Amino acid sequence: LSDRTDGAPIDRERYTDELLSLDMSFSIAERLLNEKETHGKQPVDTLKDRMKQILVSAPLIEPKCGILMIGINGSGKTTSIAKLGKWYIDRGHSVIVGAGDTYRAAAIEQLSILSDRVGMDMVKAMPGVDPASVIHDTIMAYKHRSKDVVIADTAGRLHTNVNLVHELKKIKSVMTKAMAGDKMATYLIVDATIGKNSFQQAKLFNENIGIDGIIITKLDGTAKGGIIFTICDELKIPVVAIGTGESAGDFMVFDKDKFVEELFV
Amino acid sequence: FLQEKITKLFDKLSKRGLLSEQDIDDALKDIRIALLEADVHYRVVKELLESVKQKVMGEELAKSINPSQFLLGILKAELIRIMGDPAPVKINGTGDIVMLVGLQGTGKTTTAVKLAKYMKDKRGLKPYLVSIDFNRPAAQEQLITLAKANGFPVNEDISSKGYEALKDLRLVSARQGCDFIIVDTAGRLHIDTALVSELKQVKETLNPAQTVLVVDSMMGHDVLKMAEGFMQGVGYDGAIFTKFEGDTRGGAVISFRKIIDKPIFYTGIGEAVSALEPFDPDKLVARIIG
Ligand SMILES: Nc1nc2c(ncn2[C@@H]2O[C@H](COP(=O)(O)OP(=O)(O)OP(=O)(O)O)[C@@H](O)[C@H]2O)c(=O)[nH]1
Ligand SMILES: Nc1nc2c(ncn2[C@@H]2O[C@H](COP(=O)(O)OP(=O)(O)OP(=O)(O)O)[C@@H](O)[C@H]2O)c(=O)[nH]1
Ligand SMILES: [Mg+2]
Ligand SMILES: [Mg+2]
Tens digit of pLDDT for each residue in B138-187? Predict the structure, then answer.
């Protein structure tokens, strides 16, 4: 999007195309560009303000707490656990993770390597074991070892798979019960390269499981993740963090002003 | 669905008598929104609507008995034309190499084993699998676990952290009685020039019979930049679209076919190793039109 400051009115067609290319929905793009110009303000600045107003952000959950990581296949859940873990560790907290993906090949090995790298404890079981029981055991370890943060990994799943959504409901209820009053957040991991389907994911996972925050990954590519405008606008779910690469340090707390500014050149 | 929307619109319009050009533009606007909501790239939507409008104007839609069906028919024909036909991955049993490339997390490793199974079951070709992903934690283990679970020979020497695994690849594969080789690569960004040129070098060393771009069916606008980036940087012969079994409208498939014009070999329709089927253009068009 071009960041012009010459006061000229916005070229609606060109800006519509640019907003669409961010994966913003047509209705939001139209709404943003059809509102009357604000007097005394650069048209582009008015647009930026309106975009910022749509976005919802929230801070990461404060320890002592538990976090349940959910999302579709390949969205970046396991990698984001390493990032989130490192973020809490850098701030002086201790982290334990639960290898709740007992299905996918080498999922436990992947999380184990990442946990060692970042310095987190990990609880695992044999592949094929009920994920709810691994997560339950992880919460027990979180309590017994007096850890500050417990993060549960889950297997990727499509929001349209009824059985897997049901499994996730059970995982969450087991985790909630095991947390026994400690705070807990469910974070949906959204891949920035995905289009409108991310909204369907957020909507259905929220209806069935309940989502407290969104982490949007792979923003280091060319995708802009504009679907979060729709997610925030319609579902009011906050974005809490962004992933900007494959290493544990490629992680930032979500800053909606910065996010919008970076969409403009 | 688009079909219902357009039918409703025309039912409303036809009550007023003959259709005007404005009425047609209204219908095209509805189609535009539906295609955008289906994740078709805005550039492709424009081109598509242009060619639909031309065909419609030349065919006296206004006088048609059933304008909505007529208009949808033209759109459907246009989409089917863009889809092209599915094509099989072109390999013979002579030590041919198939190399899988793509963005992170699209399903390359899983698809490598799916493709092995497909070729074995459908064409009786015995696959040899090898991963050259030395970056992602447990990437080699993932391919090995999947391959072994399905009885496919796979390179298990993961000690050599470099391209040693490729040195005598055809020889090793032939020694195991295998007919062809599937090479899994690490996910990478099309804008990562170092990793893309590394991949290009590997391709030049291997000289694969087929390079396959593995794409997530749910992709949004980024599909074109990505597909063009990989074509420029590495080059590929066609694509496999994964995670096709969800509720995505799959507009990325249409954008890919319109702009890149390489065949789509298969679609991944689940996590199971058997979940791979030939690309079905009619199925995709039905998702959009209804
Ligand atoms: N470039 C980039 N790659 C990422 C990012 N986050 C994750 N990845 C990569 O995406 C791929 C998938 O990441 P995973 O963490 O395995 O994703 P997942 O959601 O756990 O996948 P499943 O468990 O199989 O559903 C890996 O290659 C990661 O390195 C990111 O922010 N940027
Ligand atoms: N639902 C569904 N999941 C799939 C499909 N294909 C692959 N997956 C899943 O998608 C996730 C990512 O698959 P991988 O094979 O690890 O992807 P990758 O491209 O090798 O990932 P990187 O090596 O990190 O780039 C895994 O959870 C797979 O099981 C599919 O067709 N449908
Ligand atoms: Mg994972
Ligand atoms: Mg892989």
Answer: 999 999 999 999 999 999 987 666 777 687 899 999 999 999 999 999 99
pLDDT value at residue B56? 81
B192-230 pLDDT, tens digit each: 999 999 999 999 999 999 999 999 999 999 999 999 999
- Give Cα separations from A43 to A11, A15, A136, A230, A265 (angstroms): 10, 12, 53, 22, 15
Q: Of how many residues is chain B composed?
A: 290
DSSP states along B130-192: EE---SSTTHHHHHHHHHHHTT--B----S--SGGGGTTHHHHHHHTT-SEEEEE-----TT-
Query: What integer pLDDT is reported at residue B129 of this predicted model?
Result: 97
Chain A, residues 1-40, CB within 8 A of chain B, namely: 17, 20-23, 25-26
pLDDT at B64 (0 to 100) = 67
Closest Cβ–Cβ partner in B145, B190, B249 for A106: B145
A27: nearest CA partner in chain B: B33
CA A186 – CA A177 distance, rounded (Å) = 14
Is the CA virtual torsion A26, A156, A142, A92 positive or negative? negative
CA distances from B232 to A88, A161, B215, B225 (A): 40, 37, 16, 10
Strand partners, A187: A69, A213
* Whole-number pLDDT of residue B16: 61
Which runs of E-coded beta strand occur in A62-174?
A: 65-70, 95-98, 121-123, 149-152
Cβ-Cβ contacts under 8 Å, A72 against chain B: 218, 243, 246
**Cβ atoms of A102 and A155 closer than 8 Å:** yes
Sequence-separated (6 or more) residues with CB below 8 Å from residue A128:
A102, A103
